[in-house]
Amino acid sequence: MPHKLELQSVFASYGATSVLKDVSLRVAAGGITALLGANGAGKTTTLRVISGVLRASAGRVLVDGEPLASRSPHAVAKLGVGHVPDGRGTLAELSVEDNLRVGGWLLPRDAQVREQAERMYEIFPALKPRRLQQAGTLSGGEQQMLAIARAMMPRPQLLLLDEPSFGVAPLVVERIFEVLRAINRSEGVSILLVEQNAKLALRTADYAYVLDSGRVALHGDSAQLRENETVQNSYLGA
Ligand code: ATP
After folding, report:
1. What is the pTM of this model?
2. How many domains does the chain have?
3. 44 Cβ below 6 A of ligand 1
Protein backbone atom coordinates (compact mmCIF):
# COMPACT_ATOMS: atom_id res chain seq x y z
CA MET A 1 0.00 0.00 0.00
CA PRO A 2 1.40 3.42 -0.89
CA HIS A 3 2.14 5.69 2.05
CA LYS A 4 0.41 8.96 2.79
CA LEU A 5 2.57 11.84 4.04
CA GLU A 6 1.68 14.90 6.03
CA LEU A 7 3.79 17.81 7.28
CA GLN A 8 2.18 19.94 9.97
CA SER A 9 3.66 23.41 10.63
CA VAL A 10 7.26 22.32 10.13
CA PHE A 11 10.06 24.72 11.01
CA ALA A 12 13.73 23.98 10.31
CA SER A 13 16.99 25.85 10.38
CA TYR A 14 20.70 25.45 9.76
CA GLY A 15 22.28 26.88 12.89
CA ALA A 16 20.92 30.39 13.27
CA THR A 17 19.54 30.48 9.71
CA SER A 18 15.87 29.72 9.73
CA VAL A 19 14.86 28.04 6.45
CA LEU A 20 11.42 26.40 6.80
CA LYS A 21 8.83 28.61 8.43
CA ASP A 22 5.57 26.85 9.09
CA VAL A 23 5.42 24.42 6.17
CA SER A 24 2.33 22.21 5.99
CA LEU A 25 1.76 19.86 3.10
CA ARG A 26 0.31 16.48 2.16
CA VAL A 27 0.97 13.71 -0.28
CA ALA A 28 -2.07 11.48 -0.76
CA ALA A 29 -1.62 7.70 -0.68
CA GLY A 30 -0.79 6.80 -4.26
CA GLY A 31 -0.54 10.45 -5.30
CA ILE A 32 2.22 12.47 -6.94
CA THR A 33 2.75 15.86 -5.31
CA ALA A 34 5.17 18.45 -6.67
CA LEU A 35 7.11 20.93 -4.58
CA LEU A 36 8.07 23.97 -6.62
CA GLY A 37 9.90 27.18 -5.83
CA ALA A 38 12.89 29.33 -6.67
CA ASN A 39 16.48 28.49 -5.71
CA GLY A 40 16.88 28.58 -1.97
CA ALA A 41 13.14 28.41 -1.24
CA GLY A 42 13.66 25.39 1.02
CA LYS A 43 12.66 22.45 -1.20
CA THR A 44 15.73 20.33 -0.54
CA THR A 45 15.51 21.17 3.16
CA THR A 46 11.90 19.91 3.22
CA LEU A 47 12.99 16.53 1.82
CA ARG A 48 15.86 16.38 4.30
CA VAL A 49 13.49 16.90 7.21
CA ILE A 50 11.16 14.13 5.95
CA SER A 51 13.96 11.61 5.48
CA GLY A 52 15.39 12.36 8.93
CA VAL A 53 18.67 13.87 7.70
CA LEU A 54 17.78 17.20 9.30
CA ARG A 55 15.68 17.52 12.44
CA ALA A 56 12.70 19.89 12.38
CA SER A 57 12.89 22.52 15.11
CA ALA A 58 9.09 22.43 15.41
CA GLY A 59 6.11 20.78 13.79
CA ARG A 60 5.37 17.20 12.83
CA VAL A 61 5.99 14.82 9.95
CA LEU A 62 3.50 11.96 9.74
CA VAL A 63 3.72 8.87 7.54
CA ASP A 64 0.36 7.10 7.38
CA GLY A 65 -0.65 9.13 10.42
CA GLU A 66 2.37 8.01 12.44
CA PRO A 67 4.59 10.87 13.70
CA LEU A 68 8.23 10.35 12.73
CA ALA A 69 9.36 12.37 15.77
CA SER A 70 13.15 12.28 15.76
CA ARG A 71 13.73 9.04 13.88
CA SER A 72 17.10 8.50 12.24
CA PRO A 73 17.39 8.37 8.42
CA HIS A 74 17.88 4.61 8.83
CA ALA A 75 14.60 4.26 10.76
CA VAL A 76 12.72 6.44 8.25
CA ALA A 77 14.03 4.30 5.37
CA LYS A 78 12.85 1.19 7.24
CA LEU A 79 9.35 2.68 7.33
CA GLY A 80 9.33 2.59 3.54
CA VAL A 81 10.50 6.08 2.63
CA GLY A 82 13.02 6.26 -0.22
CA HIS A 83 15.05 9.42 -0.89
CA VAL A 84 16.79 10.32 -4.15
CA PRO A 85 18.91 13.23 -2.91
CA ASP A 86 20.05 16.21 -4.96
CA GLY A 87 23.28 15.34 -6.70
CA ARG A 88 21.89 11.78 -6.88
CA GLY A 89 24.11 10.20 -4.25
CA THR A 90 25.18 7.19 -6.31
CA LEU A 91 28.53 5.66 -5.41
CA ALA A 92 30.79 6.67 -8.30
CA GLU A 93 33.44 3.99 -7.73
CA LEU A 94 30.97 1.12 -7.59
CA SER A 95 29.34 -0.63 -10.53
CA VAL A 96 25.68 -0.18 -11.41
CA GLU A 97 24.99 -3.63 -9.96
CA ASP A 98 26.78 -2.90 -6.68
CA ASN A 99 24.92 0.40 -6.32
CA LEU A 100 21.67 -1.57 -6.57
CA ARG A 101 22.93 -4.09 -4.02
CA VAL A 102 23.78 -1.27 -1.62
CA GLY A 103 20.28 0.09 -2.22
CA GLY A 104 18.87 -3.31 -1.30
CA TRP A 105 20.39 -3.34 2.21
CA LEU A 106 16.95 -3.36 3.83
CA LEU A 107 15.80 -6.49 2.04
CA PRO A 108 16.21 -9.52 4.30
CA ARG A 109 17.33 -12.07 1.68
CA ASP A 110 19.87 -12.05 -1.11
CA ALA A 111 17.34 -13.65 -3.47
CA GLN A 112 15.05 -10.64 -2.95
CA VAL A 113 17.91 -8.26 -3.73
CA ARG A 114 18.57 -10.11 -7.00
CA GLU A 115 14.87 -10.22 -7.87
CA GLN A 116 14.34 -6.52 -7.18
CA ALA A 117 17.51 -5.61 -9.15
CA GLU A 118 16.07 -7.51 -12.14
CA ARG A 119 12.81 -5.58 -11.71
CA MET A 120 14.81 -2.32 -11.82
CA TYR A 121 16.52 -3.42 -15.05
CA GLU A 122 13.05 -4.01 -16.51
CA ILE A 123 11.96 -0.53 -15.47
CA PHE A 124 15.24 1.07 -16.64
CA PRO A 125 16.40 -1.12 -19.55
CA ALA A 126 19.23 1.35 -20.30
CA LEU A 127 20.95 0.23 -17.10
CA LYS A 128 21.00 -3.48 -17.89
CA PRO A 129 23.87 -3.56 -20.41
CA ARG A 130 25.80 -1.31 -18.01
CA ARG A 131 25.52 -3.45 -14.89
CA LEU A 132 29.29 -3.78 -14.57
CA GLN A 133 30.10 -0.18 -15.52
CA GLN A 134 31.30 2.20 -12.80
CA ALA A 135 28.46 4.52 -11.81
CA GLY A 136 30.72 7.58 -12.08
CA THR A 137 31.21 6.95 -15.80
CA LEU A 138 27.47 6.89 -16.65
CA SER A 139 25.80 9.81 -18.43
CA GLY A 140 23.79 12.29 -16.36
CA GLY A 141 20.53 10.61 -17.37
CA GLU A 142 21.81 7.12 -16.62
CA GLN A 143 23.08 8.26 -13.22
CA GLN A 144 19.67 9.70 -12.44
CA MET A 145 18.01 6.43 -13.46
CA LEU A 146 20.44 4.54 -11.24
CA ALA A 147 19.74 6.88 -8.32
CA ILE A 148 15.99 6.26 -8.68
CA ALA A 149 16.49 2.51 -9.13
CA ARG A 150 18.74 2.40 -6.06
CA ALA A 151 16.13 4.20 -3.94
CA MET A 152 13.45 1.79 -5.24
CA MET A 153 15.45 -1.31 -4.27
CA PRO A 154 13.98 -1.70 -0.76
CA ARG A 155 10.46 -1.32 -2.26
CA PRO A 156 9.58 1.99 -0.60
CA GLN A 157 5.96 3.11 -0.37
CA LEU A 158 6.90 6.79 -0.55
CA LEU A 159 9.61 8.19 -2.78
CA LEU A 160 11.18 11.62 -2.28
CA LEU A 161 12.85 12.94 -5.43
CA ASP A 162 15.13 15.97 -5.53
CA GLU A 163 15.25 17.46 -9.02
CA PRO A 164 15.41 14.36 -11.17
CA SER A 165 15.73 16.55 -14.29
CA PHE A 166 18.95 18.20 -13.11
CA GLY A 167 21.86 17.70 -15.52
CA VAL A 168 19.82 15.38 -17.76
CA ALA A 169 19.29 15.86 -21.52
CA PRO A 170 15.69 16.95 -22.36
CA LEU A 171 14.66 13.77 -24.18
CA VAL A 172 15.97 11.63 -21.36
CA VAL A 173 14.12 13.84 -18.85
CA GLU A 174 10.86 12.98 -20.66
CA ARG A 175 11.71 9.30 -20.45
CA ILE A 176 12.55 9.49 -16.73
CA PHE A 177 9.29 11.27 -15.96
CA GLU A 178 7.32 8.66 -17.89
CA VAL A 179 9.02 6.02 -15.77
CA LEU A 180 8.16 7.91 -12.58
CA ARG A 181 4.49 7.92 -13.54
CA ALA A 182 4.70 4.21 -14.31
CA ILE A 183 6.44 3.47 -11.00
CA ASN A 184 3.74 5.43 -9.18
CA ARG A 185 1.01 3.37 -10.82
CA SER A 186 2.58 -0.08 -10.84
CA GLU A 187 4.82 -0.24 -7.76
CA GLY A 188 2.41 1.20 -5.17
CA VAL A 189 4.53 4.21 -4.34
CA SER A 190 3.46 7.77 -3.52
CA ILE A 191 5.82 10.47 -4.78
CA LEU A 192 6.95 13.85 -3.51
CA LEU A 193 8.75 15.52 -6.37
CA VAL A 194 10.99 18.56 -5.97
CA GLU A 195 11.47 20.15 -9.36
CA GLN A 196 12.75 23.41 -10.86
CA ASN A 197 11.05 22.59 -14.14
CA ALA A 198 7.53 23.66 -13.15
CA LYS A 199 5.96 22.79 -16.50
CA LEU A 200 7.13 19.23 -16.28
CA ALA A 201 6.28 18.95 -12.59
CA LEU A 202 2.74 20.24 -13.11
CA ARG A 203 2.24 17.77 -15.95
CA THR A 204 3.41 14.90 -13.76
CA ALA A 205 1.92 15.66 -10.35
CA ASP A 206 -1.74 15.74 -9.43
CA TYR A 207 -1.19 18.32 -6.67
CA ALA A 208 1.49 20.95 -6.11
CA TYR A 209 2.87 23.35 -3.52
CA VAL A 210 4.92 26.45 -4.24
CA LEU A 211 7.48 27.35 -1.59
CA ASP A 212 8.67 30.92 -1.29
CA SER A 213 11.35 31.79 1.29
CA GLY A 214 10.52 28.76 3.39
CA ARG A 215 6.75 29.25 3.39
CA VAL A 216 3.98 27.69 1.32
CA ALA A 217 2.94 30.56 -0.96
CA LEU A 218 0.39 28.62 -3.01
CA HIS A 219 -1.00 25.15 -3.36
CA GLY A 220 -3.65 23.38 -5.39
CA ASP A 221 -4.44 20.82 -8.05
CA SER A 222 -1.82 20.88 -10.78
CA ALA A 223 -4.46 21.80 -13.34
CA GLN A 224 -5.51 24.81 -11.23
CA LEU A 225 -1.93 25.94 -10.68
CA ARG A 226 -1.18 25.76 -14.41
CA GLU A 227 -3.93 28.37 -14.87
CA ASN A 228 -2.79 30.51 -11.93
CA GLU A 229 -1.39 33.86 -13.06
CA THR A 230 1.33 34.09 -10.40
CA VAL A 231 2.51 30.60 -11.25
CA GLN A 232 2.44 31.35 -14.96
CA ASN A 233 4.41 34.58 -14.56
CA SER A 234 6.93 33.34 -12.04
CA TYR A 235 7.43 29.70 -12.95
CA LEU A 236 5.95 28.84 -16.34
CA GLY A 237 7.66 31.54 -18.34
CA ALA A 238 4.34 33.02 -19.51
P1 ATP B 1 17.80 24.77 -4.71
O2 ATP B 1 16.82 24.51 -5.79
O3 ATP B 1 18.75 25.87 -5.04
O4 ATP B 1 18.46 23.53 -4.17
P5 ATP B 1 16.02 24.74 -2.44
O6 ATP B 1 14.66 25.29 -2.55
O7 ATP B 1 16.15 23.27 -2.49
O8 ATP B 1 16.94 25.40 -3.52
P9 ATP B 1 17.42 24.56 0.04
O10 ATP B 1 18.55 23.80 -0.54
O11 ATP B 1 16.44 23.85 0.88
O12 ATP B 1 16.62 25.30 -1.12
O13 ATP B 1 18.04 25.79 0.83
C14 ATP B 1 17.25 26.71 1.54
C15 ATP B 1 18.16 27.73 2.22
O16 ATP B 1 18.96 27.07 3.21
C17 ATP B 1 19.13 28.42 1.29
O18 ATP B 1 19.19 29.77 1.66
C19 ATP B 1 20.45 27.73 1.55
O20 ATP B 1 21.53 28.60 1.35
C21 ATP B 1 20.34 27.34 3.00
N22 ATP B 1 21.10 26.13 3.30
C23 ATP B 1 20.96 24.93 2.68
N24 ATP B 1 21.80 24.01 3.22
C25 ATP B 1 22.49 24.65 4.20
C26 ATP B 1 23.51 24.25 5.13
N27 ATP B 1 23.97 23.00 5.16
N28 ATP B 1 23.97 25.19 5.99
C29 ATP B 1 23.49 26.45 5.97
N30 ATP B 1 22.54 26.89 5.13
C31 ATP B 1 22.03 26.02 4.26
Report:
1. 0.94
2. 2
3. yes
